[in-house]
Design goal:
The chain has a single domain, classed as Triger factor/SurA peptide-binding fold. It contains six helices and seven strands, in the order ββααβααααββββ. The chain has a three-stranded antiparallel β-sheet. The radius of gyration is 17 Å and the shape is globular.
């Protein structure tokens, strides 16, 4: 069985999200000119939660229906922000996504690209393609820039790109390139409600 995909997320951060209404129209985040809608983001979280190869079921704990573990939400929002930054740089570099890039991305993730079949089996076809394409663009940006330039670009992108996070999830800390948890009660909730319950 391949390693859990969640362990392959580019960056993990500390964010605590307070419960919110499913009809919240504010985006989950904005990265430059890119808006990550709450609906799209929560659909992405649902894809991960439904895939036991990607997310260890023990990580989900005894959650109530309509809620997600905040540790998972943290990782996925950070990952989505990272994808948005890389996708913008991919376009800036004038790169074009192709099957060779996708195969290389799957090789980076799994060693053997054919392992993606099992790992992605519980994802919808569209989401599996989106995730593969996002990873392919990350790998292509890193390869194109080279180690030193890639590291410098990534540090600068996190520090200088206009990134806003929905207060439900926290605030953006450009110095550390991560979401800072919102101030809350001494013992904050450990789940994110996705319905108006």
């Amino acid at each position: 069985m391949p390693r859990r995909l969640l362990a392959l997320a580019v960056a993990v951060l500390a964010v605590l999200a307070s419960a919110g209404c499913a009809k919240d129209v504010s985006p989950a985040a904005r990265v430059g000119d890119v808006k990550i809608s709450n609906d799209d983001f929560l659909a992405e979280v649902a894809e991960w939660v439904a895939n036991p190869v990607a997310v260890d079921p023990s990580m989900l704990g005894d959650r109530s229906p309509g809620t997600y573990p905040l540790d998972l939400v943290r990782q996925l929002l950070q990952q989505r922000i990272d994808f948005a930054l890389h996708n913008a740089e991919f376009d800036h570099l004038g790169l074009t996504l192709d099957d060779a890039m996708r195969t290389k991305a799957l090789t980076v993730l799994f060693g053997d690209p054919s392992a993606s079949v099992q790992a992605f089996s519980a994802f919808s076809k569209d989401f599996a393609q989106q995730f593969t394409d996002d990873i392919a663009r990350q790998v292509a940006v890193a390869d194109t820039l080279g180690d030193a330039d890639y590291s410098a670009w990534r540090t600068k992108a996190y520090a200088t790109t206009s990134i806003e996070v929905n207060p439900r999830y926290g605030t953006w800390d450009p110095k550390n390139g991560q979401i800072v948890a919102p101030a809350g009660p001494t013992q904050p909730s450990t789940t994110l409600a996705v319905s108006g319950q």
